[in-house]
Predict the structure.
Amino acid sequence: MSHLDRMRSALAASGAPAFIVTDLANLRWLTGFTGTFGQAIVSGSAAVLISDSRYTLQAAEQAPDFAVRTYANPVDGVDVLLEELRAAGIDRPAFDKANVTVATLQRWEAKLTGMTLGAADDPIGRLRAVKDADEVALIRRACRLADQCMEQLLGRIRPGVTEKQLAWEIEVFFHSQGAGMAFPAIVVSGERSARPHGVPSDKPLEAGDFVTFDFGASVEGYCSDITRTVALGCPSDRQREIYAEVLKAQLAALAAIAPGASGKAVDGVARGSLEQAGLAQYFGHGLGHGLGALVHDAGRLSPTMDWTLEPGQVMTVEPGVYIEGLGGVRIEDDVLVTADGCEILTRFPKELICL
Ligand code: ZN
Ligand code: ZN
């Protein structure tokens, strides 16, 4: 089923006669259009993509299922939206209340005369969470590149090289492979590895450091997201123990992933494992997130997530332990939820590597 057909089914189920899609990631998923400005109108019979004259050719090429309407200055985009809604016979469009700003809504309310606007939950996020075969193929390619990048990095990790230099190596590798970065790479070492989302610094690596790498490739707009922590030199008993417990928690969570399992339950498996080791207090973030066109895509594995997993979802599984003054460990894989469990898409080894 095309993404447009899936959107129409969701609309029919929600009871909304039409929807104005404004979120750019949703717009891309729905239409194929990758420009930085646009909106789509979808009803049971209409499918219109509105953008501006910068994108006239690109939109027509990328969104063949949509009637494309572009406009140039000094035309006001809200007037175009009104025209297209009227032409499609729509007078009760719903919109994503989490994405439309107060300013935009005020402009719509002033100009969309005769329309009843309905603030609604985003119907696309949940649809986007379940990937089709083409999307999974791109994520697989992005995961393969992440594995290869980690492999290549092993040869570069040594005392004296800085976090920033290693982050640059990651960037160069992905670009040399024709891919992009899913997000700015995280490289943190020593005490700085206790910062889960630390920004690479000029700190040189030193013997005894834990070094955490968290990065991903972007392949035709689809992301991977891998984290590995390695030790430089001979790790202490405490470092070995922490690493082993994080790995144990990650393996337990991976084994708990299956259709029907809730995000809360899978998170609880990892958290419970760390609890037994007396380390749960150092695991502050959620266990994982959906992965797709956005690196933090729809869906979460977290203590507050009631959604249950479905085959076709791609999730990260990334427990971590971060101890101020000592350092941190995180191990992150990307998995595809299958009919009876999950397939791990990132394959780089997870035993503690000491360099
Ligand atoms: Zn990550
Ligand atoms: Zn992640």
